[in-house]
Amino acid sequence: MSAQQSVLLIAGSPSEQSRSSALLDSVSHRLALRGGLVVDRLNIRELPAQALLLAEWGHPAIVKAIAQIARARAVVVATPVYKAAYSGLLKVLLDVLPQTALKEKTVLPLATGGSPHHMLALDYALRPVLQALAARHILPGVYATDSQVPQSADKRYEVGPDIAVRLDDAVLTLLAESFRQPATAGFEPVHFSRVRCSV
Ligand SMILES: Cc1cc2nc3c(=O)[nH]c(=O)nc-3n(C[C@H](O)[C@H](O)[C@H](O)COP(=O)(O)O)c2cc1C
Fold first, then answer.
1. Which residues, including other chains, have CB under 8 Å from residue 87's CB and lie 6 or more apart?
2. Distance (Å, rounded) from C-alpha 21 to C-alpha 42?
3. What is the Cα gyration radius of the chain?
4. Residue 39: φ, ψ to 5°
5. Per-residue pLDDT tens for 176-192?
6. Across-strand partners of 82?
7. Residue 42 three-state SS
8. Taking the model in full, what pTM does it have?
9. How far apart are CA 53 and CA 44, in angstroms?
10. Which of 56, 57, 136, 42 is nearest to 90 (CA)?
11. pLDDT for 1
């Protein structure tokens, strides 16, 4: 995998059916539409719990996870808000990473929470840790409340329209910052003669 064009999506919820993972799925879908990118995924809940909790750096699954992060140019981290911060599951992974694990990388943080009250958790709790891991650029995060990621009839979580718009913007910014792709959705330029103004 080329580090030049690779994005790693990290899912930090312990739940299999997960709203924060639905944000990640949505980002994954948008990246796939752009083409030319290698998109990899790390579901922390699938890593061995004992190796994470006891910080067994040499465990093959931890070594593999660290290598996945090392290969990526851009990292998207999704977490539920737990007790006004990010999940403990995400914390135990961050704790076993090398001190400069995010060096040269652009990071997009995503979170879901039961209410808007803890929307700043991305900034006051997660951002300093990402900074400590030497991230090159931490983009403004996207926070969604549970009501903005409703459950569909088939019990899957779906990103609502207002969050979809914010994820559109966030992905464009991520691509522009990480890979120097233009931060537009690819519209053709409009000639001045076709511009209509209303005053
Ligand atoms: C143990 C626990 C603690 C939680 N703490 C908070 C909290 O402090 N603030 C908040 O807004 N939501 C809190 N929630 C709600 C979750 O953040 C919310 O439902 C989130 O969307 C779950 O994401 P997930 O489905 O990806 O796990 C908590 C949920 C659990 C299970």
1. 12, 13, 14, 79, 80
2. 11
3. 18
4. -110, 120
5. 999 986 555 556 666 76
6. 85
7. strand
8. 0.91
9. 12
10. 42
11. 46
Is 81 in contact with 49 (CB distance < 8 Å)? no
Amino acid, single-letter form, for residue 111: A
Q: Which of 19, 26, 27, 82 to mutate to test the pocket of ligand 1 (most atoms within 8 A of CB)?
A: 82
CATH class assigned to 6-194: alpha beta
| Residue of 69, 67, 65 whose CA lies nearest to 52 | 65
Residue 103, beta-bridge partner list? 135
Ligand 1 pocket test: which of 44, 81, 145, 151 has the largest number of ligand atoms within 8 Å of its C-beta?
A: 81
Which run of H or of E encompasses 112? strand 106-113
> Which pLDDT tens digit goes with each residue over 83-97?
999 999 999 999 999
Angle between helices 60-71 and 88-96 (to 10 degrees): 80
CA distance 81 to 151: 18
Q: Measured from the CB, is residue 116 less than 6 Å from ligand 1?
A: no
Residue keyed to tokens 């539920």 = 80
